[in-house]
Structures are given as C-alpha cells and as structure tokens.
Amino acid sequence: MVIGVPKEIKADENRVALAPSGAAAFIGHGHHVVIEKSAGVGSGISDDAYREAGARIVNKPKSVWEQADMVFKVKEPLGDELNWMRPGQIIYTFLHLASNKPLTRALLARKVIALGYETVQLEDGTLPLLAPMSEVAGRLAVQKGAQCLEAGCKGRGILLSGVSGVKPANVVVLGAGTAGGNACQTAVGMGAHVTALDVSISRLRYLHDVMQGHITTIVSNSASIAEEIAKADLVIGAALIPGGRTPVLITKKMVRDMKPGSAILDIAIDQGGVCETSRPTTHHDPIFRVHDVVHYCVTNMPGAVPRTSTYALTNATLGYGLEIADKGVAQAIEANPALRKGLNTHLGKLTHRAVADALDMEYFEV
Predict the structure, then answer these.
(1) What is the pLDDT of residue 313?
(2) What is the SS3 assignment for 68-127?
(3) One fold for both 2-111+306-359 and 131-304?
(4) Distance (Å, rounded) from C-alpha 258 to C-alpha 226?
C-alpha cells in the first residue's frame, strides 16, 4: 500500500499521525510512505528525519490524498480534504462521528473506508488507540484547570495545592476511565482534594487502591453529581461511551449552582461533552464563561503537547495500521475483532452501531 500522511489542518493542531520510526516500519513491510512537507514540524520532526526513514516528501496536501491507499491522520478530515477522499480509500484517524453528522454523511457519500481510533476496542472493553491520548488529556486537564482558576482567567484565584494554613482546591472528576484516572492521579499529586464519580464500583475501587486512599470515590448519579459539583472549584468531565455521544451529566441548573469563578474542563467535548453549557473551543481561544463559571472545551487537547502526543499515538496506532496495510481491510478486520469495532463507514454504509444510534441513522452489520 501507499500510506499517506498529510499535515493536520485543524486549528492549532500540531501533532502528526506518524513518527519517522512508524514510517520506517511501514517501509520495512514493503509499503510506500508519502509525507506532506512540514507535516511533522509542529511536533519537532523535520522532513529530513522522514527522508532518512525512507519516506517521500511531497509539497501539496492534495498529492498525498491522490496517491494514498490509506490516509494516516490525527484528526477528522476537514475542508478540501473532504473533496479529495475517493471511493475505497482507507481513512485511519480520530473520527468522533457521534457528534458530527455532516462528516458522517460526507464519509458515506464519498464511499470511503473509515476507521476511528476511538472505537477500536478490545474484548475487555478497553480502547487501546484512544488510551494514550486520554492519558495525555487527563494529565493536561489538571494543568489547564489550574490555569482556569487563576485570576487571569477570571477564576476563583485558587492554588490547587493550597498552602500551609490554607486548604487545597476541591477537584471533582466525572468518569474514572483512562482520562479520569490520570486526571485524579495528577490532581492528587499536585495536592488537591479529589473526588471521583463513576457508575462502575470496580473502577472506583481500583482508583481508591491505586491512590492508597488519597481520593474520595462516589457512585455517579444525578443527585451525587449535583451535590459534588456545587462544592467543587474545578470539575473535569471525562465520561465516555465508546463511539457514542457522551451523556450530558451537568445541567444548566447545576452550572448556575456552582461557585462563582469555579471551572469546568470538558475532556469529552470531542464526543459532545458532559456539560449542557459546553461548546467546542480551540487552543487559540480556549475558554468562555457561563453563569460566572469558566469553561475550557478544547476539542484536541493533546495538541497542546504535540511531540509527546505524536510519539504516544504512533506507539498505539502503528501495529493496527500495519495489520491493515499487510492484510487489507477485509482480512484485517476478520482476523482482529478489536479492529472490526474500529470500522465506522464502509463503501457508503455506516457500520458502527453506537454512532448510528447517536445520529439516528441506519446501521449495517460488518
């Protein structure tokens, strides 16, 4: 196959889908790799590094799309990229279709084979390609949340850790999966008082054990959420339904009842967000205020630390990408059930049930 890696065009997105080591791996398997000029610059990776790995550099993004049998990306196709897709072409990237009906329709109309990193799922329910970016986002959420509480962002003017004689901030984390768990660990490490809510008692028990009791865990329901966020200085929304739209856990009324200057950091905004008052923002303009509560809702949070994110993403996506390239999509998804769940659209048909349910569209069994 010809593997094409275009430069990302989403606002403030500096990650690249493939590190030079990944390009070398594809070439070692007998494939060709085409990289758009400067695709890796935002992650500190030069064109020469890709050339040394055996990849070919092209000047125009359209050339990448025209040559590629499989387009390796970080974020969903946008703008002209939608017109460059062609029937049967494989798109391998984060898609987050449950909150994006126009993109779903475009993928179906162009009859591409689209696999979403966020829906590749192992038998135990884990999401191996989403996990590294969830890990980054969870840790980054605390860092950004701390900034949102500063006076410069019109926050409460609170230091997460507190100081001697002054109590620390109350941080509430909704969702105890990979992103939520990493947010909890980072917030505890910074000295905050942390409360985690989740519907899974086993996951809460695991977090409590890992944190050696330095965390409060509560079973999540509408009453417990309302009670805890009313006391919170920082709320981190990290709930997830694989492939589906994130449930709205924080209502407008709950936001009104929060402390003035408190903050909500909605990691789940890619899938619609956990808060009724959330809306997508960018790294360039990341925050807004509703009912005197600071909202941070950047849709590509790991893009703030692109070098770390690029290498972490390549580590996770490369093996599955090689399976697709070596075997072709049909044989790869037949042999690997996890990859089969990653298939979102196939030649004009929507093949992921959670996406179809979220968008009220027709679903086709793979």
Answers:
(1) 95
(2) CCEEECCCCCCCHHHHHCCCCCEEEECCCHHHCHHHHHHHHHHCCEEEEHHHCCCCCCCC
(3) yes
(4) 9
Q: At 39, which amino acid appears?
A: A
Which long-range CB contacts under 8 A does 25-31 form with residues at least 24 apart?
Answer: 25/318, 25/322, 26/321, 26/322, 26/325, 27/53, 27/54, 27/55, 29/322, 29/325, 29/326, 31/1, 31/2, 31/3, 31/325
Helix 178-189 crosses helix 201-210 at what angle (to 10 degrees)?
30
Find the angle CA(265)-CA(267)-CA(269) to the nearest 5 degrees.
100
Going from the C-alpha of 170 to that of each of 29, 202, 229, the distances in angstroms are: 51, 23, 9
What is the predicted pLDDT for the residue at 168?
97
Annotated catalytic residue: which of 96, 193, 295, 352? 96
What amino acid is encoded at 144 in this protein? K
Which among 193, 233, 270, 295 is annotated as catalytic? Answer: 270
Tokens 């409460």 -> residue = 156
Maximum Cα interatomic distance, the chain, rounded to a whole number of Å: 65
Is 96 among the catalytic positions?
A: yes
Predicted pLDDT of residue 244: 84
Domain residue spans of the chain: 2-111+306-359, 131-304
- Residues of the chain scoring pLDDT < 70: none
pLDDT in tens, 97-108: 998 999 999 999
Q: What is the pLDDT of residue 241?
A: 84
Please name the amino acid found at residue 27: I
Q: In the CATH scheme, what architecture does the domain 131-304 have?
A: 3-Layer(aba) Sandwich (3.40)
Per DSSP, the chain holds a count of helices (H) and strands (E) of: 14, 15
Can 48 be counted among the known catalytic residues?
no
Tell me, what's the pLDDT at 301? 94
CATH class of 2-111+306-359: alpha beta
CA dihedral sign, ordered 121, 124, 127, 132: negative
